[in-house]
Amino acid sequence: MSVLHYFGAALGLGLIVIGAGLGIGKLAAALAEGVSRQPAAADKISGAVNLPLFLLEGVAILAEVFVLLVVLLK
Amino acid sequence: MVPQEHATTAPDAHAPGFDAGRLIIEHVANSNPDHPLIHLPKVFGIDFSISKHVLMLWVVAAAVFVVVTWIVRSHAKQNRQVPSGLLNGLEAIVEFVRNSIALPNVGKKWVNAYTPFLLTFFVFILVSNAIGLVPIFEVLGLLDRYVLHSSDHSFVKQVLHGGSTTTANVNVTAALSTITFLTIIVAGSRAHGFFGHWKNLAPSGMALPLYAILIPIELMGMLVRPFALTMRLAANMMGGHIAILAIISFVFLFAEIFGHALAGIGVGVVLTVPLAVGISALEIIVILVQAYVFTLLSAVFIGMAIHAHH
């Protein structure tokens, strides 16, 4: 059973990476598109992208901490 | 989470084989609670002993205070208008925090009230993140191994145990985000009055049953924000160190699996050193970004309390 435990934690970690990667990728794509269409507004666009990016990162990190807790509090 | 960190740090160096988990925890965690640097009595059940992270907090605070005071004073003595030398760098940091973190979020009216607070956070977090990447205690450990030969319970051995990044400790970041939490309340109270701030939590003029759902959600959101700040900073700082240590552990793991030192050295040359250098470079970006993120989110939350439009 203990192997299944680690298996679940590793699977969860992979899922987190998929989700966070998709989210960050979408934000970066939108940022690149927006800046290439209107280079003058680069500062404003990256400012608007920053906050959701960090919130997304926070969620991913929280999930990783919980996965770590699942492993540690076996 | 903290008790587990300490639980696995029993000081027996004669365990058979190489234990990567114990090595990593020992290099990330605080001092062993049974052997802090300086024993102090408990007050109201709280242990006030000086552990390694407390020492590093003091080092960071002293370094920031001395350097900034020295720069500003040496400029003030010269009696000239244009800044020179290190003051240019200091001014760049101050202007960055004021113009691109505080001003867009807090607003023109309050920018001078909250810039010092945000600036303190930024510089303190940046320096305490950065000091974790400087291998002070690793060099000291090397000296101890080959030159000093100190005894098992000497001060040097106690200092060597544990990581030097204070911001990788959940307790430190929890304290920092508690300050943010209180500042949000103070900012809202100063802008709208004490009761006005609490009224702003939920929009007015809605059906009464809706408030039964809305108020708990808003209260939860109020508490989740500092919790997310805490975990983000601590987990990011700890994660990078764990990754570097895990990659360095490969050398010893492979040497043990193949029973030959050459295997370990080969893995070290081919895999470990390039990867560790890469992750260290990434860490330099991460320390800057995390100091920026903590400050920015503090500013955003303060701004949300000030500009509550309901």
Notes on the structure:
The complex is a heterodimer of chains A (74) and B (310). Chain A is mostly helical and 74 residues long. Chain A has one domain: Up-down Bundle (F1FO ATP Synthase), CATH 1.20.20.10. Chain A is built from two helices and no strands. In chain A, helix 1 packs antiparallel against helix 2. With 310 residues, chain B is mostly helical. Chain B has one domain. Chain B has eleven helices and two strands, in the order ααββααααααααα.
Outline the fold blueprint.
The complex is a heterodimer of chains A (74) and B (310).
Chain A: H1 2-37, H2 42-72
Chain B: H1 2-7, H2 20-28, E1 42-43, E2 46-47, H3 52-78, H4 86-106, H5 111-131, H6 136-148, H7 155-160, H8 170-192, H9 194-199, H10 208-258, H11 261-306
Antiparallel strand pairs in B: 1-2
Ends of chain B: how far apart? Answer: 38 Å
Give the overall average pLDDT of chain B.
Answer: 82
How many strand units of chain B? 2
Shape of chain A: elongated
Low-confidence stretches of chain B: 1-15
Rg from Cα of chain B: 24 Å
Mean pLDDT of chain A: 86
Helicity of chain B, as a percent range:
over 70%
The string of secondary-structure elements of chain A, in order, is HH
Number of helices of chain B: 11
β-strand percent of chain B reads: under 5%
* Quaternary structure state of the chains depicted: heterodimer
Please, how many domains of chain A? 1
Strand content of chain A: under 5%
Largest interface: A-B, 14 and 15 residues
Number of domains of chain B: 1
CATH architecture classification name of chain A: Up-down Bundle
Low-confidence stretches of chain A: none
* Number of H/I helices of chain A: 2
CATH class of chain A: Mainly Alpha
Give the N-terminus to C-terminus distance of chain A in angstroms: 11 Å
